[in-house]
Amino acid sequence: QIIGSNLKQTGVTIIHGHGKFIDPHSITVAGKTYTAENMVIATGRCPHHLDIPGTELAHDSRAFMDLKTLPKRIGILGSGYISMEFATIANAAGAEVSVFMHADKALREFHQPFVKAVMADMTKRGVKFIPSADVQALKQTAQGIAIQYGDHQEQQVDWVLDATGRIPNDDQIGLEAAGVTFSQRGIAVDDHLRTNVPNIFASGDVLDKPQPKLTPTATFESYYLFQLLSGQTTDPIDYPAIPSTVYTTPRIAKVGVTPEEAADGDYQVVRNHIPDDWYHQTDQETMGDSILIFDRDHHLVGATEFSAQAEDAINTLLPAIVFHFSKQQMWQMAHIFPSESAAAWHKIR
Description:
Blueprint: H1 2-9, E1 19-23, E2 26-29, E3 32-35, E4 39-41, E5 45-47, E6 58-59, H2 61-65, E7 73-77, H3 81-93, E8 96-100, H4 112-125, E9 128-130, E10 135-141, E11 144-149, E12 153-157, E13 159-162, E14 166-168, H5 175-178, E15 182-183, E16 186-187, E17 200-202, H6 215-229, E18 244-246, E19 251-256, H7 259-262, E20 268-273, H8 278-281, E21 289-294, E22 300-307, H9 310-322, H10 327-331, H11 340-348
Parallel strand pairs: 4-17, 6-13, 7-8, 7-13, 8-9
Antiparallel strand pairs: 1-2, 2-3, 5-14, 10-11, 11-12, 15-16, 18-19, 19-22, 20-21, 21-22
Helix pairs in contact: 9-11
């Protein structure tokens, strides 16, 4: 409602309904046709559903948020962002949580030693991880829902969350009629976010691009398209370092060059043990680590951390990475003390 109100105040007309292309310049919504010189597709992604017997017994993340009461036993399929975050929430609320992992690794986008540390802590809290669990079927039983996996293995739960990923929301919007090229990975665009149809652009999670599928990415792309289509720029999009985090307990966050990438290049890698920092000792933090990556000129180019406030620490370090602060410039800044940002900044000076 707040976003809608703000858009209306800027003169944006909001049309509610399902839009579908009928040609490159026209879409229909509720039987009415709208035309425009340029079109922007920003339909995002939608939950993926496993193609297995009994898939109708599983729910997506939206259904989880709408639960009125907490099921006693929850089975979560998948081991990505949504799986790990909702496992954290359900466990903290008192549910018995089992996570069925398709492979033997979770959160592949993050530094695996940090992921393993978080998983170990979640296990201590009562979350059960089942690696390499090839879920084959869901079956309604007198005891609840049976999750059948592996070699004739089975576990009973009361509620199932399908968190096996998200797919481009592009199959019901008439892309064929507009002539737009797309695939299972999303809509292809050039470095101006233009599709193969000259007047049609796309942004956000629906894109087939390597950038993280996150709100900050979509916001950055939307602002770029505003500048491009209003004639304020003709330059190609130039992405900044985009941070990402997973809201487990503790959290993991990262930005820029990863430890794995640094191992193959000419970088200086600095490691910090969070509980050794006096600021974090005031909160009695007993676990957490950070890895800072500098180039040969001591410019910070990457950071990753797992801790109770990892996302705030990484956000604090963003200006140093994006604007290539020198060591001298880093010393010319003073942060509120004591604070998380002061503790994070102290590590890089």
